Amino acid sequence: MLDLFGQALVAGLIISMLTAPLGCFVVWRRMAYFGDAISHSALLGVILGLYYQTNITFSILPVAILFALALTWLEQSTRFSSDTLLGIIAHLALASGITLYVLAAITIFVLVLFWRPFLLITLHEDVARVRGINVDFYRVVLMVMIAVTVAISIKLVGLLLITAMLIIPAATARFMANGPKQMVCISMAISALSVWIGLKAAWQWDTPAGPSIVLVAGAAFMITHTVVRLLRLSRG
Predict the structure, then answer these.
(1) Contact (CB, 8 A) for 168 and 187
(2) What is the spatial distance between Cα 62 and Cα 45, in angstroms, rounded to a whole number?
């Protein structure tokens, strides 16, 4: 049982290293609904995996990537807002309804490699175009990375809770950070701590691991928000 707890903890920490920095981009780009849409599309992957009797993880991954690419294409070729398109895709996917270490390493490598272009297209897309950055390419890469992260994180956190792990640590870090890099580092620390405390609570009180992790992250958000608000009030 201890080996099982250790494996879950290691997997959770790796996932937190993925969801935390990508979650910052989700918050910055106001794409909170994106992870939800991808998680719903994963239901279609589960159904296809069961129907064709294949590994469910490998059936989820291409479906998630396909939906991310479809969203990017629709965003560029229609006049609808991202929220509208995400709502359509999420509900279509819901109705239609991995190696972890290798994918995690690739995702982190790509995030570090393309950090500046990702940040520039998020904060100043027009400036990025003027500087000759291929905005459309980096937008697709970023969305595919988020889709891959959602797909490989589902087993630990759960299908309908992965969006919370993308958004909550990043939103919490935003209260305390003075810059993008600091926000990513704080978000990773909050995410990792949530995984550790959540898994310990699940182990001790026999509660579901995924919801326990998310509840800890939510508690961290509420505490941080309250403390920051009190400090601002005390300073006038």
Answers:
(1) no
(2) 8
Q: How far apart (Å, rounded) are the C-alpha atoms in residues 122 and 77?
A: 20
Distance CA 94, CA 43 (A): 6
Tens digits of residue pLDDT in 175-226:
999 889 999 999 999 999 998 999 999 888 888 888 898 899 999 999 999 9
Q: Is the dihedral of CA 73, 97, 152, 10 positive or negative?
A: positive
Residue type, 216: V
Q: What is the DSSP string of 100-168?
A: HHHHHHHHHHHHHHTHHHHHHHHH-HHHHHHTT--HHHHHHHHHHHHHHHHHHHHHHH-TTTHHHHHHH
Structure tokens given for 188 = 């990773």
The answer to whether 120 and 134 have CB atoms below 8 angstroms apart is no
Helix intervals (H) in the chain: 2-28, 32-52, 56-77, 82-95, 100-113, 115-123, 125-130, 135-157, 162-176, 180-205, 209-234
70-109 tens-digit pLDDT:
766 766 665 555 555 555 555 555 454 444 576 677 888 8
Question: Mean pLDDT, to the nearest integer, of 110-123?
Answer: 90
Nearest of 34, 8, 14 to residue 163 by alpha carbon: 34
